[in-house]
Amino acid sequence: EMLGKVLLEVMSIQLLGFLLKRSGAVTPVTEAGIGHYVAVIGFPCVLFSALAELQPAAGILPLMLVIGSAKALVFGAAYLIGSRSASRAGGAPGEPLLRGALFAIFGTNSDDVGLGVPILGILFPGRVDALYVLAAMQALLFNPLAYVLLGVSGARSGEPAVRPSLAATLCTVLVGLRSNMLVLSVFAGLAYRLIVAAPLPWFASYPIELLGRPFQPLVYLIGGFGFVGAFDSLTSLPAAVLPLAVVALKSLCLPMAAFLAMRWVEPDGDYIFLYALLPCANSALVIARIYGASGPLLATLSSALALNKVAAFLLLFFAGILASESSPREAMRIKATFSFAMLCLSLAGGVCLALTGALTPDWRRSRGMRNLLAHFVLQGLLAASFCGVQAANHSLGMRPSDTPTYRLQYAAIDALRWSTNASLLLL
Question: How is residue 280 annotated by DSSP?
Answer without folding.
Answer: B
